[in-house]
Each structure stands twice: as C-alpha cells, then as structure tokens.
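user: Please supply your own:

assistant:
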Amino acid sequence: MSCTLCAIVKNEAPYLAEWALFHRMIGFDRIVVYENDSDDSTPGLLDRLKRAGVIDEHVRWANIPTSPQFSAYVDATLKCRTDWIMFLDADEFLNIFSRAPVNDFLARFAPDVSCVAVNWRIFGSSGAKTFTPELVLERFTRAAAAHHAVNRHVKSFFRPRYASAVHMHAPILASRRAALASGAPLTMADHGIADRLDWSAAQVNHYFGKSPEEYAAKRRRGVAHVHDGDPLKFAHYTDQLFRAHDLNDELDDSLAWALPELKRRIAIFEAGALCNETIRS
C-alpha cells in the first residue's frame, strides 16, 4: 500500500513548508508539487524542500493554453508510481481523526473501492485581518457548522489504474466503486459534491480565504483551472465569495495535536537540514 499527494501551486511560499511537512508527517509516501509560473520565492522553496526530502518532485509547469491544473493532474496520474493518489491544494490539510497514517487509513477499505472521498470543512478567518507568521493550523480554528452546503464538496484518494478521467474533486471511475471516508457508499449530487456530509472518520480542513489580506493575494493569483488568458482567471474570487466562505461558527482545533511535532520538523528544515531521514522520520 502506498500513496502520492499532488498539488499545483502559484505564489504560495508562506505556506508550503507547513503544508508539505504536515502531509509527510501523516504518512504520504510521495509528494509531487507542480509549480505554475510563480513570481515569488515559491520555486526556490520547493527546490529546498526537495533537497531536504520533504517533497519528491518539483515540476515546473508553464501557464499553457489549456488548464494548468487539470493538465498537471493528468500528468501526475499517468506518472503515478503508487497505489493511490490524492490532489490537495496548498490551503487544504487532510485530517484523519484516528490519527492513523495514510496507508493504514486506506487499508481499511475493501479491495473493490477505488475512490475514497473526504468532505471539506471550511475554515473562516477566525477574526484575523492580515497575514501573521504563525502556522495556518494554529491561526485559524473557527470553522463552518455542518449545515453549510459548501462542506459537501469532497477531495478524494483514488487508484489511478481504475480512473477514466481526473477531476480536482473526484475522478471518474472506469470500474469498481467509490466510498466516503467512513466506508459508506459515495453518491454525488453533482460531480465532486457528495449528497450528504460525513465527518465521522476524516475531513479536509480547507483554509479557503484565511485573512482578508491573504484572500486579496489569492485573488491576484487567480484560479488554477484556467490559463492566464481566460477571462474567468481573475473573476472567480470576489468579495462576496470571501464572505460566503468566512464561516466561523464553531471551534475546531482537531489538528492541534500535530503542532508540536510539526514545529519541530519546520525548525529542522529552516535550520538547513539536508538529512532526509531527520525530517521524514
């Protein structure tokens, strides 16, 4: 049993070390990051993360006329060397409530399950107005209640050999079946949106907007699923969309357990450690 995590990023330098080290810590065997024409320190940071063994591949992915995101995901799926793959953005953190390593979590599913879908939980600004250097996992601990329909979106593990098409939320399966993280059957009301919410086993913590200042930077990056020449590139992230996702209904600090070890690993990385096993163990 083995699993790859894949992302495509642009101008995400303040967040990448935390994101990559956290997901290595919870057991992903490989982490592959496609980098889409960043003009901040993201490329250099990804090179450092690769040299340190935190990520396995840094793929420079030019802003081609087709969708940078979907073309990267197709490329990653075709080249995948593990049994499973998952696509997460740099503002999404997989949260397995049992704290089981990723492969142990996946081992619970029947052999005929080829897609495991995990519902979002949208996190709001927690009252923050600007960027501060603390970790995302400690800055933002207020989240949407279950009744918000946006939480029914999923991100998915899937077996590449049984997928006929890829999508940012869930693949189209050529054969076998899909399940929710609890093991219950997955039925989608629309593609990538489960017909019900299931946070019983896991969720994807989605730090959608963070603070208004950080949302403005996200707005300048635009969406990854269209190229720079598309009029939709910079039209999606509106003020109204931020307000709709700035959901702070309930305290959710369910990843606080990870912070001490995560900070230890970040300190090792920032000190310039190049010993892969020091960071990955």
Q: What stands out?
A: Residues 3-280 form a domain with the Spore Coat Polysaccharide Biosynthesis Protein SpsA; Chain A fold (CATH 3.90.550). DSSP finds nine helices and 15 strands in the chain. The first helix runs from residue 16 to 25.
